[in-house]
Amino acid sequence: MPTSHHPPTSATSMDPEELGFDPDALRAKYRAERDRRIRPDGKKQYRRIAGDLDSYAQDPYVEPEFTREPLHDRVEVLVIGGGFGGLLAGARLRQAGVRDIRMIEQGGDFGGTWYWNRYPGVQCDIESYVYLPLLEEIGYVPRWRYAPGEEIRQHARAIGRHFDLYRDVCFQTQVTELRWDDTELEWAVHTDRDDRIRARHVVISSGTLSRAKLPGIPGIETFKGHTFHTSRWDYDYTGGDAGGGLHRLADKRVALIGTGATAIQVVPHLGRDAERLYVFQRTPSSVDVRGNRPTDPGWAASLAPGWQRRRRDNFLTIVTGGQADEDLVNDGWTSTARLQQKLIPSDSYADLPPQERERLYEIADFQKMNGIRDRVDSTVGDTATAEALKPWYRYMCKRPTFSDTYLDTFNRPNVTLVDTADHGGVERITENAVVVGGVEYEVDCVIFATGFEVGVSGVTSGFLPVHGRGGVTLTEAWRDGPKTLHGFYSHGFPNLFQLGPLQNASSVNYVHILDEQAIHVAEVLAEARRRRARYVEPTVEAEAAWRATIREKAADLYDFQAECTPGYYNNEGMPRERSESFGDGPIAFHELLRRWRADGGMDDVLVV
Fold first, then answer.
1. Which residue numbers delimit the FAD/NAD(P)-binding domain (predicted)?
2. DSSP secondary structure string, 376-394?
3. Mean pLDDT in runs of 10 for the chain (608 residues)?
4. DSSP string for residues in 345-360
5. What residue spans define the domains of the chain?
6. Alpha-carbon Rg of the chain, whole angstroms?
7. Backbone phi, then psi, for 208, in 5-degree steps?
8. Is the Cβ–Cβ distance between 223 and 459 less than 8 Å?
């Protein structure tokens, strides 16, 4: 029988006695918990790591005094970013026959998120067999179902070697300006190493989790102890490695600020190894069963050619609400597919009347979250701590997390959970303490697990100035909103391609999305080479038509997100009125791109 993750179409009772819970009471509880955490400053409660805080962004994995001679040359394609997006762009361009590629990466090696994040317990929450790209091309099967960060980082390096991307890469380098030369039909690229590079095409994949952020807590600069962000873990201070063993914390009192996906992985190690651990929480994460296990060698040996694409496509189909003959991954993501529509919409449930669909979503959501909260009660011994760890919100208000050790850590006598919800977060930091509600918690070290500026790239923020035709900047061209064709390129900015989540479709398995984007860009560039096109640039009409499509298709998630507890999914409790995502979802979007390529769409962008 086919596996279906559609909501049930039969009537579901709203009677509390039949359900075993009261929907009205849960809605009221969710709203009260949201209201405890709403802050009028929204995203402004965080501080960008720059200026006096720049030390939090320094690279701990390279020699600090690195220098090299500036480059003054030309390349056919310059790729900005050495994470999986940039690596996939480089790999797919190589497969399309492009040999003259240069990559520029801020870090000291390939890996992106997995280069920077090497904290204890770092691990991917998507199954490795569908998350790690190009497994068959590399000839590798991951050692674990959910791969640890170091295995992922090494796989990124293997992609760089396999596709000869190390040959002409500039590490420890940031692009500081892109300027189009309409006479030479190429980009002038400037970097912080005084490079002056000319590139016919530029592909930008600077990442959606590349800029760490700090909370705007008064007194951060006055603390006399040790501090760092989890994305720059200081093993010189803690001892150990990503596998744990933080032996230098045995006599240290440690504060961890933040309880999102990173903290879920870090807390078990800190709780085991530190003399004292204080976990400062504004909003608890939902924590489901992880169930990681080593890869079965017999299963790995049985895999037939094309196995990864089949498994990856199967996962995407199911988590976006489609039907499949079998659930090949069968984990916490695929079992909650219907609930994920509240973050990543698709057209899979369009056959149900909207009111009925919403009612069934909500009941299924309540049931799932009740199970998550029951798990807290059955795991955490102290009643008050357990109550504070319960997530009171809809399932996709925050990214779900999975751990078999996080909740148990709060049973340790040396671990204290400090709930900051009624105080607007941490109140201040003194020379030797973290203060919440007037209570001082004296600590030797403060670790910030406060995440990243999600979805903010150098291009969209203006941090990386891009000057197109006539010197017009991209931020000027987009002053009344993004203008692209399919999210990849914009009129007035020839031969410039962007990978990312803007005006296209996304998924919880974001590397799959990046691969489809990289394939598309490589196909467009290959066709441009075949036609000897002068440049690639969408027409004004094609760009306007796609913008209208986005407006027409964009799902209205405002009401849902407005009821959510504050977090990065809903712009810290201030959701945007309009989505810039393709509302029919990633499967429909990928099929749209394939049809566009096959049915003459290239004529919209290639100028011969």
1. 76-266
2. HHHH--SHHHHHHT---S-
3. 42 73 94 93 84 86 92 97 97 96 97 96 97 98 98 98 97 96 97 97 82 90 96 97 97 97 97 98 96 97 98 94 91 82 57 75 90 98 98 94 97 98 94 97 97 70 87 94 95 96 91 97 96 95 95 82 88 82 92 96 90
4. --STTTTS-HHHHHHH
5. 42-57+212-290+359-448, 74-211+454-537+587-607
6. 24
7. -100, -5
8. no
Q: Is 234 helix (H, G, I), strand (E, B) or coil?
A: coil
Give pLDDT, residue 210. Answer: 64
Q: Do 105 and 131 meet the contact criterion of CB atoms below 8 Å apart?
A: no
Which one is the CATH code of 74-211+454-537+587-607: 3.40.50.1000, 3.50.90.10, 1.10.357.10, 3.50.50.60?
Answer: 3.50.50.60
At which residue do the structure tokens 């400053």 appear?
Answer: 41
What's the half-sphere exposure (Cβ side, CA atoms, 13 Å) at 538? 20
Both structure tokens of 474: 């991209």
Beta pairing class for 169-170 and 101-104: parallel
- Residue 472: exposure state from Cβ atoms within 10 A (0-12, 13-18, ≥19): middle
pLDDT of residue 280: 98
Helix, strand or coil, per DSSP, at residue 322: coil
Give me the CATH topology for the region 42-57+212-290+359-448: FAD/NAD(P)-binding domain (3.50.50)
Question: Which residue is associated with the tokens 């201070």?
Answer: 237
- Token code pair at residue 143: 């050692």
Name the nearest CA neighbour of 229 among 469, 71, 453. Answer: 453
Side-chain-side CA neighbours of 62 within 13 Å: the count stands at 17
